[in-house]
Design goal:
Keywords: Signal. This protein is an alpha+beta fold. The protein has one domain: Nuclear Transport Factor 2, Chain: A, CATH 3.10.450. Helix content is about 35%, strand content about 45%. The chain has 4 helices and 6 strands; from the N terminus they run αααββαββββ. The protein has a 6-stranded mixed sheet. The chain is globular, with a radius of gyration of 16 Å. About 5% of the residues have low confidence.
């Protein structure tokens, strides 16, 4: 009986969060989650149209351009093996969307697997009917870090 009550509360909590999001927020959240899968799959054909040609990518070891990020993903010099998304916050201002994901990232970097806690900031801009990513920044955080909403 206790398990049933906990299950119902969990379901209601998830349902409230889903319905509280606007259609644009739901679209951006799906796009962000899809992006993690495409990065894991090294699916350049889906990432290339998402990344704005002038986007910047900030990692622990440097900042680079869209062309370099795509090359890194394609060659596997960084393989985003699994982004376990723990929490997400989204704000939309005009035609700009900002997404904060708190993740545990398992990546293969130069042949070694590493697991790191990050808050990742993604900035998107709506161009016509499509969202384009302008920035992706990894900030190393403690596993207790929370995103204020």
């Amino acid at each position: 009986m206790k398990s049933l009550k906990i299950g119902i509360l969990l379901f209601l909590s998830l349902a409230i969060n889903t319905f509280a999001q606007s259609p644009a927020e739901q679209e951006i959240k799906k796009l962000s989650m899809d992006k993690w899968q495409w990065m894991e799959d090294k699916d350049i054909s889906k990432l290339k149209p998402l990344f704005h040609p002038q986007a910047k990518f900030v990692h622990m070891s440097g900042t680079w351009t869209t062309a370099r990020e795509l090359e890194i993903i394609e060659t596997g010099s960084i393989w985003y093996k699994k982004a376990d998304v723990k929490d997400t916050a989204i704000e939309i201002v005009g035609n700009t969307a900002i997404v904060w994901n708190r993740i545990t990232l398992t990546a293969n970097v130069r042949g070694s697997d590493v697991v790191t806690e990050f808050t990742v900031t993604e900035v998107y801009q709506k161009e016509g009917a499509a969202w384009k990513m302008l920035a992706l920044t990894f900030s190393s955080v403690r596993d207790t870090h929370q995103i204020e909403k």
